[in-house]
């Protein structure tokens, strides 16, 4: 069995996921860079160093997920941390952010686009978590973190004074569902050593928002990384950002 703790980060070839991977490696973990494009994953792993290895992982592809789980088991014999970070803000990659904001509203969104976004942001989280659970259950202190979004908070968006709530659409609804999925895993695993939490990185400059975000990658990765490294006295079933608890 591998002697260091092993973390898998989905969607780690760029953005917040890559920064999470860098920070976990800096904390002494071996980090598996989940990337649907293996070459991009390998380039990202090289940018971190010997403690990072690329692994092909498309969170919407069951075979890819099963192969990744098998490889982690045979090559490392353990998985301590799962970072469910992969996500899309729009169904079509070549769509501009501004256009995506408009077609993201559920009054206009095409059902196939809604399905595509949910496939990655919601069903992807469930499939990857289920596939990795046997290894996480064996870990002395398994941790699961999902990169959530305060923009998907039902409480904050129900407040008429919230200036951002006119953007609540397909993407936000998928992240709200992902928070619910995270809570469901946390509750079902309450009797185990595994802790499951959601972390909002804040509005971070990445491809997801055409680099309109105002926070750096280092800032965005902080809360997910903190929750990945919590001790046995840490929480489970919570949703937080760097300033503390976020309402569901
Ligand atoms: P990003 O730079 O676009 O990164 C998204 C990552 O997810 C990429 O590596 C992407 O891979 C990967 N991905 C997409 N679909 C995938 C699939 N089917 N299988 C595997 N990987 C897939 O954006 P980011 O901002 O860092 O996003 C990371 C997470 O943070 C997302 O869950 C997002 O919802 C969340 N978040 C971001 C913000 C923000 O302000 N940026 C705020 C709140 C929450 P490719 O490179 O192949 O596309």
Structure write-up:
By secondary structure, this protein is an alpha/beta fold. Helices cover 43% and strands 14% of the residues. The protein has eight helices and eight strands. The chain has an eight-stranded mixed beta sheet, with helices on both faces. Strand 7 (239-241) and strand 8 (244-245) form a beta hairpin. Helix 3 (62-75) packs parallel to helix 5 (111-138) and helix 5 runs parallel beside helix 7. The structure holds NADP nicotinamide-adenine-dinucleotide phosphate. NADP nicotinamide-adenine-dinucleotide phosphate (NAP) binds at residues 10-11, 13-17, 36-37, 57-60, 85-88, 120, 124, 147, 149, 200-201, 203-204, 206-209, 213.
Secondary structure elements and their pairing?
Elements: E1 6-9, H1 15-26, E2 30-35, H2 38-48, E3 52-56, H3 62-75, E4 81-84, H4 97-103, H5 111-138, E5 143-147, H6 154-157, H7 170-188, E6 195-199, H8 217-228, E7 239-241, E8 244-245
The structure holds NADP nicotinamide-adenine-dinucleotide phosphate.
Question: What descriptive keywords fit this protein?
Answer:
248 residues, alpha/beta, eight-stranded mixed sheet, 43% helix, binds NADP nicotinamide-adenine-dinucleotide phosphate
**In DSSP terms, counting alpha (H) and pi (I) runs of 4 or more, how many helices?**
8
Q: What percentage of the residues does DSSP assign to strands (E)?
A: 5-15%
Number of strands: 8
What ranges have pLDDT less than 50 throughout 5 or more consecutive residues? none
Strands ordered across the widest β-sheet: 3-2-1-4-5-6-7-8
Global Rg: 17 Å
Order of helices and strands: EHEHEHEHHEHHEHEE
Oligomeric form of this entry? Answer: single chain
Largest sheet: 8 strands, mixed
Structural class assignment: alpha/beta
Give every kind of bound small molecule, once each: NADP nicotinamide-adenine-dinucleotide phosphate
Helix percent reads 40-55%
User: What number is the mean pLDDT?
Assistant: 96
- Distance N terminus to C terminus? 39 Å
Q: What is the 3D shape?
A: globular
């Amino acid at each position: 069995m591998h002697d260091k703790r092993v973390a898998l980060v989905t969607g780690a070839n760029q953005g917040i996921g890559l920064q999470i991977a860098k920070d976990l490696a800096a904390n002494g973990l071996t980090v598996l860079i989940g990337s649907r494009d293996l070459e991009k994953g390998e380039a990202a792993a090289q940018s971190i160093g010997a403690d990072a290895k690329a692994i092909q992982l498309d969170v919407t592809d069951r075979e890819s997920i099963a192969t990744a789980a098998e490889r982690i088991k045979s090559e490392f014999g353990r998985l301590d941390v799962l970072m469910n970070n992969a996500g899309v803000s729009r169904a079509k990659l070549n769509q501009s952010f501004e256009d995506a904001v408009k077609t993201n509203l559920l009054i206009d969104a095409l059902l196939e686009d809604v399905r595509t976004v949910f496939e990655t942001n919601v069903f992807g989280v469930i499939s990857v978590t289920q596939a990795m659970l046997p290894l996480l259950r064996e870990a002395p202190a398994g941790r699961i973190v999902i990169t959530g979004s305060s923009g998907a908070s039902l409480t904050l968006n129900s407040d008429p004074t919230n200036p951002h709530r006119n953007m609540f659409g397909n993407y936000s609804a998928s992240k709200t569902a992902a928070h619910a999925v995270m809570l469901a895993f946390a509750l079902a695993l309450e009797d185990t050593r595994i802790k499951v939490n959601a972390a909002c990185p804040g509005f971070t400059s990445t491809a997801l928002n055409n680099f309109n975000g105002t926070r750096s990658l280092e800032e965005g990765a902080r809360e997910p990384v903190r929750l990945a490294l919590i001790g046995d006295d840490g929480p489970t079933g919570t949703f937080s950002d760097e300033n503390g608890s976020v309402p569901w």
